[in-house]
Structures are given as C-alpha cells and as structure tokens.
From TrEMBL, chain C:
InterPro entries: DsrC-like_C, DsrC-like_dom_sf, DsrC-like_N, DsrC/TusE. Belongs to the dsrC/tusE family. SUPFAM superfamilies: DsrC, the gamma subunit of dissimilatory sulfite reductase. It is found in: Cytoplasm. The active site is at 111 (cysteine persulfide intermediate). It comes from the Bacteria. Its EC number is 2.8.1.-. Part of a sulfur-relay system. This is Sulfurtransferase. GO terms for molecular function: sulfur carrier activity; transferase activity. Pfam families: DsrC. It comes from Thiocapsa imhoffii. The keyword Oxidoreductase does not apply.
C-alpha cells in the first residue's frame, strides 16, 4: 500500500430513496475505507436528507440504509460534515439528524457524535483542502 | 375535466413544483410523492410557495414516502392531507387525467 | 455450487457464491449445513460469532468488513477474541466471508 495519504472527500448532494446515488455513495465510502486514506464525507443540498432520524422504509419496500450511516465510525471514517445553510433551507436542525459515534478500541477514547454542522465558508475550505472529491 | 398533478422530485433540486404550481388551474389536486414529499415540510425555503397555493389547490402527500424519509405528519404544512397508496389510487380515479411533473 | 441447499428436508435458495438468497429464510440449520459443506463442525465459539453478525446486521443493515468485525468482536466478546488469528482459526475461509455466509447475511461490503 502507498505511504502517501491522500485527502478524499465524498460529496453527497442527493436525497435518499428517490435515486440510487445515496446508497451507492455509502457503499463506496465503506469499501474505500479499507484503503487507509484521509476520508471526509460532506452532506450538502438535498444530501442532508440522507441523515434524518426515524427513517422507516417498510411501506415503500426499499432497503432502509439509514442505520448503516452509524457504522461509519467503526469503519474509521471520522470526518462527517453537514452544511448548515442546506439544513436551514429545508426546515431542519441538527436535532433532526442521526448521531454517529466513534470509539478507539485500543484507548477506549470515545466521541459521542462525529457529525459536524459547518458553515458554507468551512465547506469551501474543506473542498479546497481535498486532493480528490468524489461527487454523488 | 379535473387533473391530478403528481410531483416526485425534490423542490430544492428541480423546478417541477414551481412549474406545477404555476400551471395547475384552480381546484386541481396535487400529490407529492417520492422526493416530492420534501415540498410538504414546514419551515423550508419553498413553504411560502406551497402555502400560497393551498387556497386554490388541494395538496396531498404520500404517507409511506414521508415515513421512509423520517418525517411524521406533524412536520407537514397545515392544510396538506396525508394519503396512503389506496388514497393515491382514489385520487387518480376521481380525477379524469393525471399529469406527472417528472 | 448448487442454487439451493437442503436443510431439514427444506430447500433454501442461495446465490452463485453460496450466500443465502433471502436473509429472512435463515434458520440455525442453514449454518450447520453450510459448515458441513466446508468440512467444519460448529462449536459455541463459532455460534458466538454467527450470532454476533446477525445482531450487527439487524442493527446496522450491513455485514461488516473483516477489520470492522475484528474490532467490534473485541469490544463485545473480549479482546482475546477480537483478533484475526482467533477468527481465522474458527473460520479458515475468512471470518467475514465465511461466517457471514453461515449467518445468512450477504457478502460483506468491502470484500472482493
């Protein structure tokens, strides 16, 4: 494996279920997590709807992948960002979003919620810092 | 003949809702489903457009799609009715035509 | 690999890699039959992992990749079990792939 660690950003801009993008992106993030790169996941525009609490897809007959976001911490994906302006335009607050915990199994250091709501300037900054952006 | 307008795209991503509200004539029915259900939420940037149309249009939202996306009926704009799949069928039957705003 | 396996006289559909086609069909006998095909006899230690995987799937809707499984097992069942040497000793074809198959789960995300 390469010694050079690249900064990868996965950019999510689509709502879940209406299209396949959200689920495909999540699978790519989980598969890509095996490569020990510096990974961040950004939720922007309708992408913020992917993280809403209480999703229940029984009646529409589709897989509910909302619980799978909570494994991102286990996969060592620790940088999860949500654009505040996107939330506000959609009548949402941080309280509407799932919490994703992270724990270091060696040191037992724990972060209760790694989902970070950031302002637009920070979103731009994070994009500029990335070596590659994968857009979904 | 009355028309049932259906919208299945997010109002934040496409202009289907906007066009539909512009062209739907008074008394028409509008059903929001799939990603279209986001237009029914309170407190969004598009709420004023939707609320403004409620006086002249009957607006419905498909419950199963709302539930799938994590929203209960309490989160939707007052005046919009939640329907199930059977209600969707009834609306299609009651109205002579269905216009899908894809 | 045949397209079905027989458990207690009943046929269960499997995919081309031997994973159970319908997650909800699973009964413990499925694991026993699949293990016998791999020349393994399941012990309590195997069942700890199989049950752990089923619980993990129930909660997260995903079969964990092997290194995630290793960590999570260490946390739940103790550090002596949360290492790949121990897990490979139980499941020689790979703890995530083989144990997930026995547990009736799809192939883990992140496995090729």
């Amino acid at each position: 494996m390469s010694e050079v660690v690249k900064k990868f950003m996965y950019l999510n801009r689509k709502a879940p279920y209406g299209t396949i993008y959200a689920w495909e992106a999540l699978e790519v993030v989980l598969i890509g997590a095996a490569f020990d790169q510096d990974v961040s996941v950004m939720f922007l525009d309708d992408g913020v709807f992917q993280l809403t609490k209480g999703q229940d897809t029984k009646a529409i007959g589709m897989k509910n992948f909302s619980p799978t976001f909570r494994t991102l911490g286990d996969y060592e994906v620790k940088k999860i960002y949500v654009d505040r302006a996107s939330l506000e335009a959609r009548g949402l607050t941080e309280d509407d979003l799932v919490e994703i915990a992270w724990e270091d199994f060696e040191t037992e250091e724990e972060i209760e919620n790694i989902v970070e709501v950031v302002d637009s300037a920070r979103v731009s900054e994070l994009m500029n810092e990335s070596d590659a952006i994968f857009s979904f | 003949m009355s028309i049932l307008h259906t919208i299945n795209k997010s109002p934040f991503e496409r202009n289907a809702l906007e066009s539909c509200l512009k062209f739907a004539s008074d008394g028409s029915a509008v059903l929001l489903f799939e990603d279209g259900v986001y237009a029914a939420l309170q407190g969004t940037a598009v709420e004023p457009h939707v609320s403004g149309a409620l006086g002249r249009l009957k607006v419905y939202v498909l419950g199963p799609d709302l539930q799938a996306r994590g929203f209960s009926a309490e989160r939707i704009i007052e005046g919009i009715s939640v329907v199930d799949y059977a209600g969707f069928v009834d609306l299609a039957a009651e109205n002579g035509k269905v216009q899908a705003w894809l | 690999m045949s397209d079905t396996i027989e458990v207690d006289g009943k046929q269960f559909a499997v995919d081309e890699e031997g994973y159970l086609a319908n997650l909800n069909d699973w009964v413990p006998g499925v694991a026993n039959v699949m293990a016998a095909q791999d020349n393994l006899e399941l012990t309590d230690e195997h069942w700890d992992i199989i049950n752990f995987l089923r619980e993990y799937y129930e909660e997260y809707q995903i079969a964990p990749a092997v290194r995630v499984l290793t960590k999570a097992v260490g946390k739940k069942l103790g550090k002596d079990k949360g290492n790949s040497k121990y897990l490979y000793s139980l499941f020689p074809y790979g703890p995530a792939k083989q144990a997930c198959r026995f547990a009736g789960l799809p192939k883990p995300t992140g496995c090729v």
